[in-house]
Amino acid sequence: MSLLEIDNVTLRFGGLVAVDNVSLRVNEGEVFALVGPNGAGKSTIFNLISRFYDPAEGRIRFDGKDLLKHTADQVPSFGIARTFQNIELFEQATVLQNLLVGRHRHRKTGMLSNIVFSPKAYREELRHREAVEEVIEFLNLQPYRDKMIGGLPYGVRKVVELGRALASEPKLLLLDEPASGLSVEETQDMAFWIEDIQTQMGISVMMVEHDMGLVSAVSGRVMALSDGKELATGTAAEVQSHPAVIEAYLGTGEISKTGTSRA
Amino acid sequence: MRFVFKTSYDADISLFKHRAQAVWYGLLLLLVLATPLYFVAIGDAYLLGEITGILILAIAGMGLMLLTGHTGLPSLGHATFMAFGCYLNINLLGAGVPWLIAFPLSGLIAGGLGTMIALPVLRLHGVYLALATLAMSMLTSDFVVIAEPWTGGIAGAAVPDINIFGMEINRYSTPYKFYYLVLFVAILIVWFYRNLLRTPTGRSFTAVRDSEISARAMGINLTRTKAMSFFLSATAAGLAGALFGHSAGYVTNETFDLVMSITLLLMIVIGGLGFIHGAFFGAIVVGIIPVAIANGRTFLSTTFDVNINVPGLESALFAFILICFILFEPMGLYGRWLKIRTYFELFPFYRKDMFKRQKSYLKTDRVQ
């Protein structure tokens, strides 16, 4: 059975159809990539899964449960974690604290036992630290452990954001452009991590990415979108050679008589 | 330079980073415990009363710090919650409730009322939230007049003495006992505050402050978290208000006015937003300035026969100090101390932009 099922989802912003009747499946243990030109609706699909937007039509099911019945802050409790295209970390906190916020869905103590720091809260803290320490080890973040996010270079922040998502021990990881702005070496690291996340941790990954090198290196299936519509789905090679995808990226080669061309 | 080698998870959780730090805070505790001895020796407790006042301000400041410094919600209405706490305390004591129950209860009810007021305004962000709380603050003195049966209205209300198992505590007749009582409450709240910051609840507050969108994506319920922060914040302010009443002895509709709300906000900005220390540093500055001005006046008139009687000198001085801080040290006094300490710890490797912040302080101000 598929982990994530999106059926005929449509989202409109006023007159603009951002996502147009898109259906897709993400299977357990798979790396699924969304590609497409800017404005194709890739990140919008992520925001739909995160429940930041309400679709006009369609259904989104995760693990057999209807996500549309839940609010954005309930989504992580199903085991969905995500990163953002423009890094959204907690700037005035250390790397460690950021990763610990990722553990939020696993907390078992309330405000009162937190305030008096009950033995239960203490034991819970120890467990969180242990889990976070494993993520730090996995992503080689030890040198930055106690550094404030505000002073970290871009590439490291990208990794911290991945770490924060991993700290929540998700079933499905949504990565929004994990390689954007990264150097060649950093992108290679990212590719290795995504592979390890899939094979060793058994986490399914859905990602939006422009770097076709990374996409072909790690993804099983790829879906190409343009103007909110599905163009093609298949392996990276199949999608790259699909005529509709080539047209969306490069145009048809005919000069438009009306003088307008598709973005 | 000190290297702290962490060998267990406890190292991150414990209250003090390393043993030297624990020793310093231990010494500070000894100092504040021994302070009354000095005043006993000189036989004049006037300044001890001022110090007690600073501690009360610091308690209220911690309340506001939690909301503004750690959750990123500015409030210009915290004097209102102090008023709630103060009048509830007076009425509960008047109804015969023992102080040990009346005092915490008045704080908690103030917290509850604060949350009820907060729920509708929590949808607002940044400057709009500040304006809504400002309006609340402006209504407070009118409300005190309207609720005359409980508050004494314009005539004011006398605050009964504290009675703990037959031990009478009054600011004037037993200043030392009152000082220790306030100190105890302050230390207790610092401990609660520290616990909060090292557990999930406190981390969810700072998460909401730094990025609402990713806080939600991590499973943090924004409304609940903000309401929780408001509750704790108003509770601390309510407790401070009750103590303030005992310290003033007599409260009227003008006691908890707009100026007090603004002073609280000034206090935490001057002290350093986002640090518990900031509430104390700010309270010290706010507490010392009036005393310093009074002493300066006396000194000038007795020594040089110069009399300065400018109305509003204090407010002007506050405003000037605040402007200087916002321009030159947005991290406040505690931030300045951190920079100086880091400079010496890392000497000669300190870089000027080490504490530079990437984005504006209140992320909630950004349009999302």
TrEMBL record, chain A:
PROSITE patterns assigned: ABC_TRANSPORTER_2
Keywords of the record: ATP-binding, Nucleotide-binding, Transport
SMART domains: AAA
Domain annotation ABC transporter: ranges: 4-252
Gene Ontology, cellular component aspect: plasma membrane
Pfam families, per database record: ABC_tran, BCA_ABC_TP_C
Record SUPFAM superfamilies: P-loop containing nucleoside triphosphate hydrolases
Transmembrane helix listed as a keyword: no
Record GO terms (molecular function): ATP binding; ATP hydrolysis activity
Protein name, entry field: ABC transporter
Species, as recorded: Sulfitobacter mediterraneus
Organism taxonomic ancestry: Bacteria, Pseudomonadati, Pseudomonadota, Alphaproteobacteria, Rhodobacterales
UniProtKB/TrEMBL annotation, chain B:
Pfam families: BPD_transp_2
Membrane-spanning ranges: 22-41, 47-67, 79-102, 108-131, 178-194, 230-252, 264-293, 313-334
Membrane topology: Multi-pass membrane protein
Database matches in InterPro entries: ABC_transp_permease, LivM-like
Molecular-function GO terms, alphabetical: branched-chain amino acid transmembrane transporter activity
Keywords: Cell membrane, Membrane, Transmembrane, Transmembrane helix
Chief location category: membrane
A cellular-component GO term for this protein: plasma membrane
Annotated localization: Cell membrane
PANTHER family from the UniProt entry: HIGH-AFFINITY BRANCHED-CHAIN AMINO ACID TRANSPORT PROTEIN BRAE, HIGH-AFFINITY BRANCHED-CHAIN AMINO ACID TRANSPORT SYSTEM PERMEASE
Protein name, per record: Amino acid/amide ABC transporter membrane protein 2 (HAAT family)
Species in which this protein is naturally found: Sulfitobacter mediterraneus
